[in-house]
Amino acid sequence: MAVTLTVNGKTQQVDADPETPLLYVLRDDLELNGAKYGCGVGQCGACTVMVDNEAVLSCVTPVLLLEGRRISTVEGLGTMEKPGPMQQAFIEQQAAQCGFCIPGMMMRAQALLQANPTVDEAAVRAHLEPNLCRCGTYMRIVKAVMRAGELMHQSSQ
Ligand code: FES
Q: Which residues form the 2Fe-2S ferredoxin-type domain (predicted)?
């Protein structure tokens, strides 16, 4: 069945079973490999993307629910040449170790900071709780998100 999805501002049709999890369509059909397959059952956060302004686990979200919604993935946050504030902050803080969890961390953090870039550290920690990092670089990830908030706040002034 043809499903129409808007991903990072681009609307396109894909041929998919409506029950197919968004993660598979992103990776297999749209060649957007930023969102990762970790557990596949909504337990790790590696597959997190944004739908409208909410963080969503794409491994357990069927594409049929997403027509007419705005899907954002890590690829939409910036480019190699021009990283967005979230990417810039993660690079500055050297927050990645293996890097597998980072796209999901960034997208969950983006949902938080878009709503309020000046949140405190406790709010960042609480918001990121569903996302796991097997390398344990949580301290740096939290610092990176705080820094991203500063950059986003500055650019909104
Ligand atoms: Fe989706 Fe783990 S891959 S939550």
A: 1-77
How high is the ipTM of this complex?
0.98
Residues of the chain with CATH 1.10.150.120: 77-155
45 lines ligand 1 (CB under 6 A): yes
Query: What digits encode the pLDDT tens for the residues 2-37?
Result: 999 999 999 999 999 999 999 999 999 999 999 999
CATH number of 2-76: 3.10.20.30
Q: What separation in angstroms does the CA of 143 have from each of 25, 53, 86, 92?
A: 32, 22, 11, 10
> How is residue 146 written in tokens?
């705080």
Minimum-distance ligand 1 atom for the alpha carbon of 59 = 1
CA geometry: angle 143, 145, 140, nearest 5 deg: 35
* Start-end of CATH 3.10.20.30 domains in the chain: 2-76
- What is the pTM (predicted TM-score) of this model? 0.96
Please give the CATH architecture assigned to the domain spanning 77-155. Answer: Orthogonal Bundle (1.10)
